[in-house]
Design a protein that fits this description.
Rossmann fold; binds magnesium ion; alpha/beta; 7-stranded parallel sheet; 6-stranded parallel sheet; OB fold (Dihydrolipoamide Acetyltransferase, E2P); binds adenosine-5'-diphosphate
């Protein structure tokens, strides 16, 4: 069965009263250019104006309604001229602060006036304040009713008021109710089986929250209106990624058959056999590479599961078939390290390697570029620098991206574009550093096939993790001395709250100085993000070959670094990091045969939730379990890495909270692709902003 594609609803904003060029321009800044864009401009959050908060109970960050008597009003000349209005209720006093105000306002806010104010609580010089609250002066002493429902707060822009958006939405609903009914895009069968309410009803609930939509209910995401819209949004995103994949798969790629000679030679030379999981995943990849459509595969595996070897086997298959392969890493350190590993494995086999990163300059760079262009280099390792314009490949067959969670969908696409030449597209293999919960893979990576290396090489002893308060630092330092006396090596990882590389590096330098003084008998090294790439590489190689015993580092060592003799890691202030990131860091130890330890040296006081989070680290070494917990506690941003995870900006869905819907989204998504393919494009257009649609929709 097929549907005719529903007509596009290009209802212009000019159908609404009062939308002139100026307002239209403001709305355009929010990506709103049609009536339906407005309808799907969903509230960012809600304010609770249904109850009053006593002033004594104000907490920073809360959105509140307060009511009280003006106890003082003065214009203050600080850095900015501001009007400060003191308000007191029975419980306490707070200040309302206005930066823009009129003389009339100042007069009206006279001592003794009764006022109700709505706003966000902030910390000011004189304790908690409300900055620029909306307010209302109350006449007489009779109580005035509060709202009986939550107040939506929309994404807005400078000069576009919430009230303006609300009024426009009123018009949108009237227009759609009377002039132009909005068609459902979800087929009847789906809506019935999922018990979904009609789309317009759901939208009405979200824009005009009824009294039963309480903050608690909202948070749970279980209101039928939310579920309906969340599902449809996730479905649209799923369909968009699947479409992207269909487009990619319809392109031609060179089948990379290979005769297995190089792969067998490598496996014979290795001191260990592949794990069962490595073998299985390698076979999956090998099959994809032999096909005439580009492979799009994601390899997931816990830290230390041996993804590098799997990647190298894939690369060798390309080389056997007469093609080049590139392996791209997100950092210099990691790229450098991959190069050393590959060099050791592959030079004996006569495979020509090349290395390219930002720090390769001058003659060396020219030589590397020439080796890539001429085809002399068969396997190329590097960083983003591999995809600059002047880099040309002779016959690129396979692109491997390591630790992909730092790149979004857009970057994935541009990599493919760059590798594309003369009608053939490279195969693409993506490896994640951090395991990703299955439900999240279904949404964030729906454009890829997925293989999981669900087994660690034998002989690993799980890392023993302990939590200690910072007061025990001296004991921890003694422990490092003892471990190093036994020939072991250790990491000391410094973290910082602020996302400031400068401060983080300063902290690492200070810690380095302290530890040098405390451990005079040891050789210490320091590595952080602001050092020159060459310096970093040097420190890393000194640590790797045992010249350094203790490496003080920032989180730059997070991914991929492999020094099997390092068996002790101290992480300072672990409470500042996400669990997935901690797990990734901890994965730097436990790589050799000796028992490894990780000390989480936390700062007191630790909140209850903070303690619980760190306990998960102590209890589990399973990256998938930890990632699932992280998803529940901190949301998907942490796991997917980048702020812009590559997923479209979601309007209502929350990948963490709504993950349970994901299997149904996938199942119905495939059903729509099979039974109602014409619905995919309009669904994508309805939910994804122009700039977020991949491929041509
Ligand atoms: P990750 O999956 O975290 O990228 P790596 O590829 O860095 O892991 O591998 C971690 C370590 O395990 C490396 O020292 C690697 O040589 C080793 N290794 C890989 N495969 C096996 C195996 N099948 N048996 C034993 N050791 C292995
Ligand atoms: Mg790795």
């Amino acid at each position: 069965m097929t549907d005719a594609a529903p007509a596009d609803e290009q209802l212009p904003l000019t159908l609404l009263k009062g939308v002139g060029p100026q307002l239209a321009a403001k709305l355009a800044q929010l990506g709103i250019s049609t009536i339906l864009d407005l309808l799907f401009h969903l509230p960012l959050r809600y304010q609770d104006r249904t109850r009053l908060t006593p002033i004594a109970a104000l907490r920073q960050g809360d959105d509140v309604v307060i009511e009280g008597m003006v106890a003082g009003c003065a214009v203050v000349q600080g850095r900015r001229r501001s009007l400060m209005v003191k308000v007191q209720d029975g419980s306490g006093v707070t200040t309302l602060r206005f930066f823009h105000f009129s003389a009339a306002q100042e007069r009206a806010l006279a001592v003794g006036a009764r006022i109700r104010a709505y706003g966000e609580v902030r910390w000011g010089k004189a304790g908690v304040e409300l900055y620029h609250p909306e307010y209302q002066l109350l006449q007489g002493s009779a109580p005035i009713a509060l709202e009986d429902h939550l107040t939506p707060v929309y994404p807005a822009t400078e000069g576009l008021q919430q009230t303006r958006l609300r009024k426009l939405l009123d018009q949108v609903f009237v227009y759609l109710d009377t002039q132009h009914a909005l068609p459902e895009l979800l087929p009847e069968e789906l809506r019935q089986k999922m018990h979904f309410m009609p789309l317009m009803d759901a939208l009405r609930v979200i824009h005009y929250p009824p009294p039963d939509l309480t903050p608690a209910r909202l948070q749970s995401g279980e209101h039928p209106a939310q579920r309906r819209l969340v599902f449809e949004e996730l479905l649209a995103n799923y369909l968009s990624l699947r479409r992207l994949r269909d487009q990619a798969r319809s392109q031609a790629a060179a089948p990379l058959q290979g005769d297995g000679s190089l792969r067998q030679a490598l496996l014979r030379a290795l001191p260990f056999p592949l794990t069962k999981a490595q073998r299985r995943v390698s076979e999956e990849i090998s099959r994809d590479l032999s096909a005439a459509q580009p492979m799009l595969r994601l390899v997931q595996g816990d830290v230390g599961s041996g993804k590098t070897l799997v990647a190298v086997l894939a690369a060798l298959q390309a080389v056997e078939a007469g093609y080049q392969a590139v392996l791209m890493a997100p950092t210099e350190i990691l790229a450098e390290q991959h190069f050393l590993t590959l060099d050791a494995w592959l030079s004996p086999l006569g495979v020509e390697l090349a290395f390219l990163s930002g720090r390769i300059k001058g003659k060396k760079r020219d030589a590397a570029l020439e080796a890539l262009r001429s085809g002399q280099a068969r396997l190329i390792v590097g960083t983003h620098a591999l995809f600059q314009n002047e880099v040309q490949f002779a016959r690129l067959g396979l692109v491997i991206v390591d630790e992909q969670h730092r790149f979004g969908v857009h970057q994935r696409l541009s990599l493919r574009e760059k590798g594309h030449s003369a009608g053939a597209w490279p195969h693409q293999l993506i490896m994640t550093a951090t395991p990703i919960p299955r439900t999240l893979t279904m949404s964030a990576y729906a454009d890829l096939d997925c293989s999981v290396i669900d087994e660690l090489p034998p002989g690993r002893t799980p890392v023993n993790t302990v939590l200690l308060p910072a007061e025990r630092r001296a004991a921890v330092v003694a422990r490092i001395a003892a471990a190093c006396a036994l020939g072991r090596q250790a990491y000391w990882v410094c973290t910082l709250i602020e996302e400031s590389e400068v401060l983080e590096c300063q902290a690492a330098e200070a810690t380095f100085a302290d530890l040098c003084a405390a451990l005079p008998a040891l050789k210490l090294g320091l590595i952080h993000g602001r050092m020159k790439p060459r310096e970093k590489a040097q420190v890393m190689s000194q640590f790797k070959n045992g010249e350094l015993q203790l490496l003080v580092a920032t989180t730059v060592i997070e991914v991929g670094v492999d020094v099997p003799n390092a068996s002790l890691m101290i992480i300072e202030n672990p409470e500042r990091l996400g669990l997935a990131q901690l797990h990734q860091l901890r994965g730097r130890v436990g790589r050799g045969a000796s028992e490894s330890h990780c000390v989480l040296l936390y700062q007191n006081p630790l909140s209850g939730a903070g303690k619980e989070r760190l306990s998960i680290m102590r209890e589990s070494n399973d990256g998938f379990y930890i990632a699932q917990k992280d998803l529940e506690i901190r949301g998907p941003g942490e796991i997917l890495g980048a702020r812009q995870s590559g997923l479209a900006q979601l309007r209502i869905a929350d990948l963490g909270r709504d993950s349970a819907l994901q299997p149904a989204v996938r199942q119905w998504g495939e059903w729509i692709r099979a039974e109602h393919p014409a619905l995919a494009a309009p669904l994508i257009r309805r939910w994804l902003a122009q700039t977020e649609r991949y491929g041509n929709v």
